[in-house]
Amino acid sequence: MKKILALSTGLIAGIFLAANLQAQTAAPDISPKAVLDVMQRVADWQLAHPSFATNRAATGWVQAAGNAGMMALAGISGEARYRDAMLALGETNDWKLGRRVYDADDHCIGQTWAELYLLYRAPKMITPLREKFDHVLANPSTTASLEYVKKEDAKTRENWAWCDSLFMGPPTWVRLYAATGDARYLDFAVKNWWRTTDFLYDKDEHLFFRDSTYFKKTEANGKKVFWGRGNGWVMGGLVRTLQYIPVNHPDRARFEQLFKDMSAKILTCQQSDGLWRASLLDPDSYPLKETSGSGFYTYALAWGVNQGLLDRATFEPAVRKAWAALVRCVAEDGKLTHVQPIGADPKKFAEDATEVYGVGACLLAGSEVYRMAVFESAKPKAVKVSNPAAFGRESETVELALAGKLAVMDGLTSRILDSQTYTEDGVDKLLFQADLAPGETRTYYVMDASALAAVPPPIMKTMARYVPERFDDFAWESDRIAHRIYGIALIKAEGTISSGADVWIKKDRGLIVDTMYATKHYHEDNGSFMDDYRVGKSRGCGGLGIWDGKKLYVSSNWKNWKVITTGPVRSEFELAYEAWDAGGGRMVSEVKRFSIDAGSWMTKAQCTLSSDDKTTLPIGVGLAERACPTNREEFIAHDLGEGWMTYWQPEDQPKGTTAVAIVLGKGEVKEFTNDDPGMPDSKKHANVPQPTHEGYPPIRTQLAVTQAEVGKPLTYYFGASWDRSGDFTNHLQWEAYVKRFAERRDAPLQVTVEN
Fold this sequence. Notes:
The chain is an alpha+beta fold. The protein folds into three domains: 28-378, Glycosyltransferase; 381-459, Golgi alpha-mannosidase II (Immunoglobulin-like), CATH 2.60.40; 463-746, Beta-galactosidase, Chain A, domain 5 (Distorted Sandwich), CATH 2.70.98. It has 18 helices and 28 strands. Helix 8 (170-180) packs antiparallel against helix 9 and helix 10 (228-242) runs antiparallel to helix 11 (252-268). The longest helix has 24 residues, at 2-25.
């Protein structure tokens, strides 16, 4: 009886053991939700166990590699905490890099800062990065050799003399190029990538030596020494560099060929359990599982399949096998195990060893496996967006006639872009924004949002709303500038009659209108925003009137309002004005539609006029002009053919300078004038009493004169900026922006949708 019982117990134990082994080796669910769940568990464990709490620099390479994965997760997760954690890290460390000037390890954190900048466009996020890289460009290392003498020799590490540096350095430089459009950063990355590659890359094995000290070393089996994680850094660096090198760059094909050659070799080094070992050519001598190098290989191969650079039938099975192996190395609490520690003997380390760079590699891998899973189920539409201009485009809005609950994925990364859908005059619109290099064509993917496991919370960059709590104002803003315009209630409350637009200036990229109304501190310099612009009875910033050559006839305050859309990419609304006498008893009424896009200082205005007795009306679009005492400066510039005018106002109180502008259609402006050309210089340059709370009052309106066809929209743009925001610190920079805005108007993006 005991024998039978013992046999039965052993049989049951064997069955359970077999079932457990089968569960461990079975391929995990590779659905978008399953992949995202694993990524979030791993990231949450890491956030709860920060590596920089163990005497490691928060801006060092260990943390930076982990942050790369956190940013990839933030681009697909529906939870804001991953993005918020990276923001908090940047703020806490003042967006600084590591202390060493040239060492790529101390540059790596700049990848996170630059990616956050590309989300928020806050200059402070890349200011230290830009300062350090500008210093490197102005003061290049005097060390010419790439020979790697010893680690403690700082001069050895002033160049990218070890293969890991290709993950730390080049992806940072190309991200700064993407953030600024400054080709010097791109050129530095490309030049020095190939310098290191020509030195460390073995063209026979299609692998990188760790550094020059390994050129003649061999493994126990007699083969060359190529470290698993070292080549993982290279593969990850290749992907992260290719993501931000322009698609039409002359060296891109060379980068892609290197990627394909290395991928083919790496595929042959994958072990039967799906992972790679610490030594690529002698895995038998290094039998321990290793997940950090394996994570980077999974990331790179999956990215290559998703980009169409690698044959799907050949490489996708390897990717799935590798991801399954990585998932099996994630403990129940989310801890990623089997990560080779820094500087440890690669033949002997604890199975439960972990490091944040391993977590970063795992999250990067997950982001591309996630994209693979989404594409499999979503069948997205490929959208080709081309920049026909010889200049770069930043935060340019793409419009598509598509309806539904849609999502947009970046083509070169897996990031889900902020997008917006709405219907305008019966036309469905999908909006998202793109950055493109000169002459570049990029691909984006549009899909039903239900194909995603989650939609990342959008960063709200525009708003528009009726403000009943303040005498029927209507206010709107982008992440760059804010405006308001007055309703009928203000006439009764204050006697103010004006249809000109007010300007609220700000430094930060956040939305401030609601804060301004809540605090009612309109005219004080809050450090980040204020109202220092006085409209009075002028046209303010971009108001219009009927111009008969001598007098400007203007409407009263708006009477009716309608919000069309308000969201992360665009806010649009409509205001209606009662008819007014435009001279000689002729009555004119107006409906004006306003829209502002994220990343823009300019508001689009579409004015439709109604009148019984005219088919065309002479229109003056204006900017309020201030008195300019002889000890102050102002600058008015315009271009008749291109249809723009700028005004760099004289500073009143020491609150900085407000700049304003209008842009009409090319060739539409008939003349530039003002509504009081006979004004004596004594009034123009009078020493106006210093304002107590708000800017100088207007003395007249500068006008751009055009013709409007009754019943058809007249489209123009108006905008403003503040020199203390740091974006435009002198009139020449503001004029250059407005000139480029007109050039963008005349060279719209070319968009095609491929099914």
